[in-house]
Amino acid sequence: MMDGVLNINKPSGMTSHDVVQAVRRITREKRVGHTGTLDPMATGVLVLCVGRATRIARYLEAGEKEYKAVMHLGVTTDTLDAEGRVLETRSCGPPDRSQLLHALKQFIGTIMQQPPAYSAIKVKGVASYKLAREGKAEPLKPRQITIFDIELTAYEYPFISLTVKCSKGVYIRTLCADLGDTLGPGAHLTSLVRTRSGRFGIDHAVTLDQIADLAAAGILGQVLIPLDEALADFPAMKVEEADAGRIVHGNRIPWHGDSTSINSGLVRIHGPEGRLLALARAANGEIRPELVFS
Fold first, then answer.
1. Which residue numbers in the chain have pLDDT < 50?
2. This model's pTM is above 0.90
3. Which of 90, 92, 102, 241 is the most exposed place for a label (fewest CB within 10 A)?
């Protein structure tokens, strides 16, 4: 049995589902899922949950994301990226750096963003991108997202390079297209790398070839991140034997701590010997198990 998290450096040209399928074949584990898709064109951090770790996917998916993006001013496409059909080429004059910096500030904070038609969002049970390919796309409802910071890292017209820190659910393609419209010339995304997803960074990501080699050598455990470590952004709390018994049976226990110091009210519960027992929610004077591991 294989339980843990893999930090994969996704190659360009593969869908997130393709990567999941590849890891299923390599590990011979059917329970594999990702924690947030990357478009086929994009590369970088794709966090996969294997075995029992699939149960923590939604908690990992909520983490802050960081991207490095390059956009092309003056050309718009139907997919909002370089893989789409060109819709329009505009001959506006290049904006100067001060105009660009001013425009970027308008997108920082909690804003509404309309997902692109070419996305996996379901419309009446059908993926929107499938409808778009058939010319039947329907406008998708704008969603509230948060962009924590945008840094201009390079500007050589018509190309703009950005580093974006944001919440889950942000479409960088849409951000680039909206920025292009704000500046005037329009734009599309030409390259995208996810450099971080929650606590998982690209510096420690492994390729599918490396995963295959490690699995063949029987040492995949070297890069398989244990559940407790994967959840390390949540504070830990150790309980005594009696309370540990209650927790593993899904029962609540009294608590008199300060929930304001706990991220989202969630805490890892460890038994007397330090073993991870559960992810629980601390509120209203009690600890309530939300996900029991042992």
1. none
2. yes
3. 241
